[in-house]
Amino acid sequence: MTEQARTTTYGVPPAHPLGLDVTMPIGRLPAARQIVADYVRLTKPRIISLLLLTAICGMYAAARGPVPWRVLVALCCAGYLAPGGANAMNCAFDGDIDKIMTRTSGRPVPSGRISRPVAFGYGVLLNVVAAIWLALATNPLAAGLALAGSIWYVGVYTIWLKRRSKENIVIGGAAGCFPVLVGWAAATGSLSLTAFLLAAVVFCWTPPHFWSLATLLRDDYRQAHVPMLPVVAPDSQTSLRMMRYAVATLVVSILPVLWGGLGVAYLVVAVLAGVRLCQLTWACRSRLDARAAGRLFGYSLMYLAIIFLAAALDQVFTAPVFHL
Fold first, then answer.
1. 299, CA 20 to 30 Å: which among 14, 17, 31, 261?
2. Nearest to 54 by CA among 154, 179, 143, 151
3. CA dihedral in degrees (267, 273, 278, 284; nearest 10)?
4. Do residues 52 and 80 touch, judged by C-beta distance below 8 A?
5. Given pLDDT bands bounded at 50, 70 and 90, which one contains residue 97?
């Protein structure tokens, strides 16, 4: 059989159960590790790592001590699978614009290595597995919140707002609040005001974090016609709104202490970290260039990790300052 005959049948590429591109000669098919790497890449591990940290820290802040190993394992695994599945579905819907953007053109879907239907089905499967795992190992509330976060990210952000509104990341970015609630619910089976306030920190933090990234990738988003705020608004408006959300992040991060849920150790870290976030955002007011945006984006990643580690450690080793 000729090489052409092995790769196609009467000019039609054969279907592949994994959604891989099989139009290349058999001798050049991707190795198993490439296949695995592509399916892992669909989940966007770098994005999930920070979300997973907020979930784990939220769990320890709620538990105020050791957590059963089965709960920890379930949260770590299902806490990756649920947002990872949402990211895979995002890749499926955004395959067309990902192909246009330089940063994302090499992803498995726009490059043709995995088809959009397969990527979507893969994302659904990961969410089903995550929900069942959480429901069995922890409780139905945690499982439901994990699914709700995925639905919000795919339905509200990806499908509804991303291509239509400059408020896409403000409203759609609320999906990033759910991992905190999932972690809290996994530990206690319920939610408290402290849990919602920590989730609100993520909500307020998201716009300056993402808009600084969007500033760095402005040309990509403009070329793909995605109306991120730095693309459609003047720099002065973008920097002003980032500053407002940075101040809101600082204020909201202090509220759990006033409520009585977190203690003095967390308070010190929240104030210092929040002031630094505001300083870097303020630096963007005169000129929102790559240097200022890059510094803000890099620190914003550290900020969220610092805040949630402080919340978890505060509850494990100290007592609340206020009791209402």
1. 261
2. 179
3. -170
4. yes
5. very high
C-alpha atoms less than 13 angstroms from C-alpha of 137 in its C-beta half-sphere: 22
Cα distance between residue 171 and residue 203, in whole Å: 9
Say if CB 55 and CB 180 are below 8 A apart: yes
Q: Name the 3-class secondary structure at 214.
A: helix
Residues 227, 172: Cα–Cα separation, whole Å: 13
The CA distance from 195 to 193, in Å, is 5
Angle made by CA atoms 175, 178, 181, in degrees to the nearest 5:
165
pLDDT, one tens digit per residue, over 154-171 is 999 999 999 999 999 999
CA-to-CA distance for 257 and 125, rounded, in angstroms? 39
Q: Per the confidence metrics, is the pTM higher than 0.90?
A: no
DSSP state, 9? B
Over the stretch 177-215, which tens digit does the pLDDT of each residue have?
999 999 999 999 999 999 999 999 999 999 999 999 999
Q: Is the Cα dihedral 186, 80, 72, 256 positive or negative?
A: negative
Around Cβ 230, how many Cβ atoms within 10 Å? 25
Of 44, 193, 43, 13, the C-alpha closest to 112 is 13
Length of the chain: 324
CB 259 within 8 A of CB 320: no
Taking Cα atoms as reference points, which of 62, 136, 126 lies closest to residue 90?
126
Helices in the chain by DSSP H: which ranges? 3-7, 32-42, 45-63, 69-93, 95-100, 116-137, 140-151, 168-171, 178-188, 193-216, 218-223, 229-232, 235-259, 264-282, 290-317
Question: Rounded CA gap, 16 and 14, in Å?
Answer: 6
